[in-house]
Design brief:
The chain has 11 helices and 18 strands. With about 350 residues, the protein is an alpha+beta fold. It is globular.
C-alpha cells in the first residue's frame, strides 16, 4: 500500500503528517514515516494533543510502574526483524549504562542513553482505543513499544502515564532528530588475527566477546572471518528458516535475540507455529511473535564461544552492511552444558565453503 501524499521536497509539518495519516489509516507507522521522509518519532509527535502525550523517559519510574500493569505486549525491532513478547513485566534491575528486565515471559536489556523521546499513544481503531507507550532514540528510530492488552490493568496504566507526563504538551512541535549514523564494516588491523584467536580462546563467558571486539576494534563479521573454522563458519542463507522449522518440529527450546541501539529483547523457550508469508517468516505462538525478513539476510554464521561449561553455539544472521539481524542459542541455565540436540542441529545446518565466502567478501 502506497501513501497518497509523499513529500519529496520539504519535510512535512505536523498538520501535513496528520493529513497523510488520515488518508492512509491502515499503513504501518514505520512505512508511512519512510514515505513521508520523516522518522517514527516525528510521526508520533505530530499527534501530540490528538491522542498522543509526551512522557518522560525515566527508567526508575517507568519500569517499576510497568511491573504493576499486568499483561502487555513488548515489541523490539530493527530494520529486518520484529520481536514481540506477551506477558507481565516482572523484575527490573536498574543501571546507568545498561538496565535489565527479567521475567519468565519478558526478558530485556535496555541502554538508557539511547532512550530519548517518549510518547503515550491512544489510537482510535473503530470502537476501540489501542494504547501504547513508544520510545525512540536520538535518530527518531523506535527502540521499544509497549502495547496494552485486554488483560492490562488500565487504572495502573493511566496512573503510570500521568506520573510521566511532561509539562510541555505543545501541539505541532516536532522533535529534533539526529542524522542516522549508518553501520559500516571495519578494516582489521594488520596482524590482528593472532590477538583475536588468543583472546577468543581465553574467554570464559560468551558475554566477554563484546569487550574483545571493542579492544581489537573489530565488527562481528570481520571477527568471524578471521577466527578460523573451529570457531566460526558460514552457513547457507536458508539456514535461519530451516532452524526455525526444525526447533519447532523437534521442540528444542531456544534463545532468540533481536536488538537495536536501545534494547535487546530475548525469547527463551520452545516455539511451535512457524508460518511463511511472502519474504517474511513468522513465529505465531500465544506469548511470542517473531517476524523476520528473510530477503534481508545476506550472511549467516554459526559461532562457537567458550562458556562456563564447555562452549556454546550461536546462529547469527546479518544484513548486507554487516549489521546483525537476529541471533539464536540453545536454551540453557547458567553453569549448564549446552543442549546436545541444539548443538547437533546448529552443527548440521548447511555450510558454505569458507574460501569462497571470504573470496567474495574481498
Amino acid at each position: 500500500m502506497k501513501a497518497d501524499h509523499i513529500f519529496l521536497q520539504d519535510r512535512p509539518n505536523a498538520g501535513e503528517i496528520r493529513e497523510a495519516r488520515a488518508k492512509n489509516p491502515k499503513m504501518r507507522e514505520r512505512d508511512l514515516a519512510r514515505c513521508l521522509g520523516i522518522t517514527e518519532a516525528e510521526l508520533a509527535a505530530s499527534f501530540v494533543g490528538y491522542g498522543v502525550s509526551r512522557i518522560a523517559v525515566r527508567f526508575d519510574d517507568l519500569f517499576p510502574g510497568l511491573t504493576g500493569v499486568g499483561e502487555v505486549m513488548a515489541l523490539t525491532r530493527n530494520e529486518s526483524a520484529v520481536h514481540e513478547k506477551i506477558g507481565p513485566f516482572e523484575r527490573y534491575i536498574p543501571g546507568k549504562r545498561a538496565a535489565m528486565m527479567l521475567g519468565e515471559r519478558i526478558d530485556m536489556r535496555m541502554f538508557p542513553g539511547n532512550w530519548v523521546h517518549g510518547f503515550a499513544v491512544d489510537k482510535v481503531d473503530g470502537n476501540d482505543v489501542r494504547r501504547s507507550l513508544q520510545f525512540f532514540d536520538a535518530h527518531g528510530e523506535a527502540v521499544q513499544k509497549i502495547h496494552a492488552r485486554p488483560g492490562t490493568d488500565m487504572a495502573a496504566w493511566t496512573r503510570l502515564v500521568d506520573s510521566l507526563l511532561l509539562e510541555d504538551q505543545t501541539p505541532d512541535r516536532l522533535p529534533d532528530v539526529a542524522e542516522t549514523d549508518s553501520f559500516s564494516r571495519k578494516v582489521p588491523l594488520e596482524g590482528i588475527e593472532t590477538a583475536l584467536r588468543d583472546g577468543w580462546q581465553a574467554m570464559t563467558d560468551p558475554h566477554q566477546f563484546h569487550g574483545l571486539l571493542q579492544d581489537l576494534d573489530l565488527d562481528r563479521v570481520s571477527a568471524f572471518e578471521l577466527a578460523g573454522e573451529s570457531r566460526a563458519w558460514p552457513l547457507h542463507n536458508g539456514s535461519v528458516p530451516a532452524l526455525l522449522r526444525l526447533v519447532a518440529s523437534e521442540r528444542i527450546p531456544i534463545m532468540c535475540f533481536v536488538a537495536n541501539r536501545g534494547c535487546i529483547q530475548i525469547h527463551c523457550g520452545p516455539i511451535r507455529t512457524v508460518i511463511d508469508k511472502g519474504p517474511w517468516i513468522n513465529v505465531m505462538d500465544p506469548t511470542f511473535h517473531l517476524h523476520l525478513r528473510t530477503d534481508h539476510i545476506h550472511e549467516v554464521w554459526a559461532v562457537r564461544k567458550p562458556a562456563d561449561a564447555g562452549h556454546v553455539t550461536s546462529v547469527e544472521a546479518y544484513d548486507r552492511d554487516g549489521q546483525q539481524i537476529i541471533q539464536f542459542f540453545g536454551m540453557r541455565g547458567e553453569g549448564d552444558a549446552e543442549r546436545s540436540d541444539w548443538r547437533g542441529l546448529a552443527e548440521n545446518l548447511p555450510r558454505l565453503d569458507r574460501a569462497i565466502v571470504l573470496g567474495a567478501a574481498e
